[in-house]
Design brief:
With 188 residues, the chain is of the alpha/beta class. Strand 4, helix 4 and strand 5 form a beta-alpha-beta unit.
């Protein structure tokens, strides 16, 4: 399976359990998961100009903290955080103050995008980064295309950029990747 992190393991276990509940042999259910790939924003991966770009949807403090932990474990060359406050995201973004960003302290480059990119920048201004100095912020850019490009130029060929974003910010990044020919269109 190509599903990372505890959430991928939970999803796989739930699928096998559901199959068993309706009488499917567990070995058959497990084999059926072979080759399963993530859905939109569930640690979905694309390749762009020789770089790996991983997309993770963050809807609340728990999902952003968990995605941040997975991102840190990947030892990425950069992390682009996206925060928007469109109706699909929810207008209140104060929940970002409940996220533990300390796990990202070793990431070489950080960027912010979305309609509330400045809120993320402020949150990081007040986030501790023990003994490492100020956060290495590349961009605080509301326009996702520009923020994505600013991050990509910092990530070396063969490197990894992880995108952690709310729904509409991530949707904008995914559309940008589609326009660049590296991600399929999202079904509407």
């Amino acid at each position: 399976m190509h599903l990372a992190g505890p959430s991928g393991a939970y999803d796989a276990a739930a699928a096998v359990s559901a199959a068993m509940a309706i009488g499917i042999d567990p070995c058959v259910a497990i084999r059926a998961l072979d080759g399963a790939t993530p859905a939109f924003g569930r640690l979905e991966e694309v390749r762009l100009r020789g770089r790996r770009v991983v997309l993770a949807l963050a809807k609340n403090p728990a999902s952003l903290t968990e995605s941040g932990a997975i991102a840190a474990g990947e030892q990425p060359d950069g992390v682009l955080l996206g925060l928007s406050d469109e109706p699909a995201d929810g207008r209140d973004v104060s929940w970002i103050w409940d996220v533990d960003f300390d796990r990202l302290s070793a990431v070489p480059w950080i960027g912010f995008t979305g309609t509330r990119a400045a809120d993320l920048a402020l949150r990081f201004k007040y986030s501790a980064r023990p003994a490492a100095g100020p956060w290495p912020v590349v961009a605080t850019e509301p326009l996702v295309d520009r923020a994505l490009e600013a991050m990509l130029v910092r990530v070396p060929r063969g490197g990894t950029l992880i995108v952690l974003a709310t729904y509409t910010a991530l949707l904008g990044i995914r559309k940008s990747l589609h326009r660049r020919g590296v991600a399929p269109a999202i079904p509407t």
